[in-house]
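USER:
Make up one protein:

ASSISTANT:
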Amino acid sequence: MLTREENELLCRVGPNVPMGRMLRRYWLPAIMSDELEPEGKPKRVRLLGEDLVAFRDKNGDVGLLEESCPHRGASLAIARNEDCILQCLYHGWKIDATGTVRETPSEPEDSTFAQRVRAVAYPTHEAGGLVWTYMGPVDAQPPFMNFEWTTFPQPQRLIFKARTECNWVQAMEGALDTAHTPLLHGNAITPGAVTLTTYKSDLKIDRPSNDTRPRLHVEDTPYGLKYAAVRTPLVDPETTQYVRVTQFIAPCYVTFPAPAGFTYMQLFVPIDDCNTMFYFAQVSCERPFDPDQIEKRRYRAGFREGIDIDADFRRAQRRENDWLQDRASMRDPKNGNFSGIFGVQAQDMAIQESMGPIYDRSKEHLGASDAALIRMRRRLIDGVRAFERGEPALGLAERIPYELVRSEEKLIPIDAPWQTVGALAEVS
């Protein structure tokens, strides 16, 4: 368990606390690219406890500014967006994507006020259907984290996005917890006599084991950690082991084995101390997604737009309605749902939210199945303490080939080392 002081150190993300300062040294998703239209409506973005506004100018470039106009604080979310600037409605100040004040129409013609004032602006980078930003010191900006999935063309990429009403680490812990899968998600992820994880249909996934007690092996990496969940397979259990390797990439990214032909990453981006924006990036490595397949995946995850998710990415399944739990389905012996909550990702979010905005981890009783999340917490806590002493942020001491960091699952001989699974990918 953690002390209450460690829990606070881990969870708080504002600009004037240790973890918040470290998180600002990484590239983080701010908004999805398709949320912004050239000269369209600016969109509010809350990130690391800061209220920002994103806009796309007529040239297609994206700006990310503090929402408050630097003049008198009027919201730039309702500003005019034209001629590659945002123009505040209050006094007409014109501000470009770099934060430069271009004009101050209410000031005298010979005023130099505009040259002496700047809006808070953060650099942006578009990749993988997301607009990413860096919120730290200009002279410490790291190279972009070029994950492999960001390089696939849009037709082969699918991204789900939803707001989770709990702390970012709490949300991320579900992705690093393999033991819950056959229980919480038992209606969608089922055992079968298969050689690798496969889609039984667009609504169910087969895995080659019914072992609910995985043996976990955790190993630190320069970018975070990786861990193996070793299970006894249904086929050849005397000679074979089923190994799934998951990767944690600092500060808030998790990649885990996907069914054959797909790549997955989940991203847990802190909105503020008590809220997280969840992104689930899926790539079809061999062919584009077709519209019917996309809708079935949204249905299985519980991410149907306008039904499960509203225009602000808030979910219909919320604490105040007990996440729309259907207790009758929990009692159905044939088509039942163990949790009574519909949707794989929705089930994860319900569990994380049910713990409260920031769970007091000093009350926990952790077991062997919690080894990966225990190590993740320790990596982040040790990392932020080292950062406060002047060392590089976790994962930024050296250049990481992020495009080669992949998760993997294999059936391997029972005496083979688990490290043969999930090694850095070979350069093709």
Observations:
- The chain has a mean pLDDT of 93.
- The longest strand covers residues 262-272.
- The CA atoms of residues 133 and 223 lie 19 Å apart.
- The chain is about 15% helix and 25% strand.
